[in-house]
Each structure stands twice: as C-alpha cells, then as structure tokens.
Amino acid sequence: MEKLVLIGIGTGNPDHLTLQAIKAMRGADLILIPQKGPDKSDLAGLRHAMLAEHAADVPVAVFDMPKRDVSGGYLAGVDAWHDAIAAAWVAAIATVQDGRGFSRDIRTVALLVWGDPSLYDSTLRIASRLKPAPVVTVVPGVTSMQVLTAGHAIPVNEVGAPFTVTTGRQLRDHGWPAGVDTLVVMLDGECSFGSVQPAGVHIWWGAYVGMAEQVLAEGPLAEMATTIPPLRERLRAEHGWIMDIYVLRRKG
C-alpha cells in the first residue's frame, strides 16, 4: 500500500456522497469495510450499497472491527484499540493479496469513513500507526452536525457568536464550557443533557440523521430532558443500535 484514501461518506444518505468521493472510490485498488457485529450490519450494508452503485468493479475486503477494552483507563483503552484496528487493516489487505494473487496492484487502499474524518473520528490517528507509512489523502464528507442543523432548519451559531463542539463525556465531567452559549454534543450514550441546568436552554436533537430512519425532536430542555431518553431507548431497541447528536443553546 502506497496510498491510503479516507473518504468521508456522510451520515448514511447516499445523496450526501460528493463527486470527489465517488471518484476516489473508483480510483482505489481495494476498499476496506468494517464489520461491527449483527446489531450494526446496517452500517456495513450502506457502505456496500454505495459501492454497488458507484464503484462495483473495485475489490472489497471486509474486516471485523476490534472491540475497545473498557476495563481500564479510557485513554489507554483507546490507544490499544487503535493499534488493534490498524493491525486489522493490514491483515485484511494481506488476505486479499495472498488470496487473489495481485499484490503488486494494491497500491491505493480506501476506507469509507462515516461523516467526515476530521470531526470526532479516529481514522486519521489509526492511519498514523501504519508502518511503512502510506501517503494519506482525505476526501471531506458531510458531518452529522450539518445534517442535524439542516434537519431542524437552524443555524449552528448565533450572529457573530462562537459555538463549541464537544462530547457527552466532557459535558458530564466538566459542565457547560465558559464563554459560549451554543454547544454541539456528539458521542453521548448517556443523555448527558440531563446534567445541565435546564432553565433557558433549548435542545435540538436527532438520531440516525440523514438516514431513512431519521428522527428529530426539539424543545425546551426542561421538557425534552424527560422525553428524549425513553424515545432514544425505544429506537435503540428497534434498530439494535443508535447514533444521535444534539445542539444545546441557552439565552445569552
């Protein structure tokens, strides 16, 4: 592998693929697709569907996504997990080379990255662990933040004002960041908005944004803090998995 192309594919809507993304798919010698177990087979299925429509002739290698060890410290667990994912990439490429006999032709390998590789995604960090290091190219994709605000038809910032993109863990552990009145919260599996003083705060929430299963909800946090958690659990039970994101805004 001489070149690794990380292709942002948006949040599950095939219409969010850019022309640049489609060209990058077609230009790859091999595309890697992760499997995350039967509960998340929808995610692999969407990737396969995109390739079937736009790059059906490009070989595909599927690999099992390693699970993160949550028994120890968070950062140590993430570090070991990233090592394991990089090793899984290498093993998948080697399997194709050995099984199909065209190892000299696999020079450009692509990964289809959910959303965009720059926003709360670790693919670039994992790629930095590969030895020898390939040339890494990034094709930007539509982010869940953009799809959420489009779905609610709201701007992410107020006039001339900053906003902060953060995680549920940070919101729970450190509270509302100083100096901003608008937060975009990602990677929150515990409804951390429940830790926020709700007075004067509005929430715009979405699950499966951009996908056919998309569900949106919004309103005063004082009301929605009790409405969203049971809705979220019902959706998780129906689909076997959930990805959600929300914007919080308080009166300045």
UniProtKB/TrEMBL annotation:
Could you tell me which residue ranges the Tetrapyrrole methylase domain spans?
Answer: 3-224
Which GO biological process categories is it annotated with? Answer: cobalamin biosynthetic process; methylation
Show the Gene3D superfamilies listed in the entry.
Answer: Cobalt-precorrin-4 Transmethylase, Domain 1, Methyltransferase, Cobalt-precorrin-4 Transmethylase, Domain 2
Q: Does the keyword Methyltransferase apply?
A: yes
* Family annotation (InterPro entries): 4pyrrol_Mease (IPR000878), 4pyrrol_Methylase_sf (IPR035996), 4pyrrole_Mease_sub1 (IPR014777), 4pyrrole_Mease_sub2 (IPR014776), CobF (IPR012797)
CDD domains, A to Z: Precorrin-6A-synthase
Which Pfam families does the record associate with it? TP_methylase (PF00590)
Write out the catalysed reaction: precorrin-5 + S-adenosyl-L-methionine + H2O = precorrin-6A + acetate + S-adenosyl-L-homocysteine + 2 H(+)
Which superkingdom heads the taxonomic lineage of this protein's source?
Bacteria
The annotated pathway is: Cofactor biosynthesis; adenosylcobalamin biosynthesis
Instruction: Give the EC number(s) under which this enzyme is classified.
Output: 2.1.1.152
According to UniProt, the name of this protein is Precorrin-6A synthase [deacetylating]
Per the UniProt entry, what species is this protein from, by scientific name? Paragemmobacter aquarius
Q: Which UniProt keywords apply?
A: Cobalamin biosynthesis, Methyltransferase, S-adenosyl-L-methionine, Transferase
Do you know which NCBIfam families this protein is assigned to?
A: CobF
Write down the top EC class of this protein. transferase
Q: Which GO terms describe its molecular function?
A: precorrin-6A synthase (deacetylating) activity
Task: Report if keyword S-adenosyl-L-methionine is assigned.
Answer: yes
